Amino acid sequence: MPLDEFDRKIIHSLQEDARMPVAQVAERTALSATPVSRRIKRLEDDGVILGYQPVLNARRLGFELDAYVLINLDGHSDANISRFEQAIQDNPYVIACHAVTGDMDYLVHVIARDVEHLSQITLKSLVRIPGVRDVKSIIVLETIKDARALPLE
């Protein structure tokens, strides 16, 4: 969907603060509140804006460890993939999962309280999903960049 200058300014403002009042967004875009409200509604209806949610501090909530788990399946049947993807959906410690190219089938982003908790998640949950063949874990030592705002060109 092509975005004009006003759409980009609206999205940029909402990416900075999704709770920003429409009047403040209007101020930043040099439009009045009514057209800004209509544009926001259109961006939501068109699926450009998918929703609004708070950004939580995982460490403050007790999740000290951030890890990525690379997973290979032993076969790529529909049933195997379905079973795996459902197990991933059901696991509350998996915060993202991507099917990837290369040596592994999936890249799974996991949060855990500590290394022991990561071990439990991996050994008692991920490894035991029927059809999982290989699992490799990567523990994040330091996050250099964690941008949530998308570039608007």
From TrEMBL:
It holds the Pfam family HTH_AsnC-type. GO terms for molecular function: sequence-specific DNA binding. Signal peptide: none annotated. Keywords: DNA-binding, Transcription, Transcription regulation. One of its GO terms (cellular component) is cytosol. Coiled coil: none annotated. InterPro entries: ArsR-like_HTH (IPR011991), AsnC-type_HTH_dom (IPR000485), Dimeric_a/b-barrel (IPR011008), Tscrpt_reg_AsnC-like (IPR019888), Tscrpt_reg_AsnC/Lrp_C (IPR019887), Tscrpt_reg_HTH_AsnC-type_CS (IPR019885), WH-like_DNA-bd_sf (IPR036388), WH_DNA-bd_sf (IPR036390). GO terms for biological process: regulation of DNA-templated transcription; response to amino acid. PANTHER family: LEUCINE-RESPONSIVE REGULATORY PROTEIN (PTHR30154), TRANSCRIPTIONAL REGULATOR AZLB (PTHR30154:SF34). This is AsnC family transcriptional regulator. It comes from Novosphingobium malaysiense.
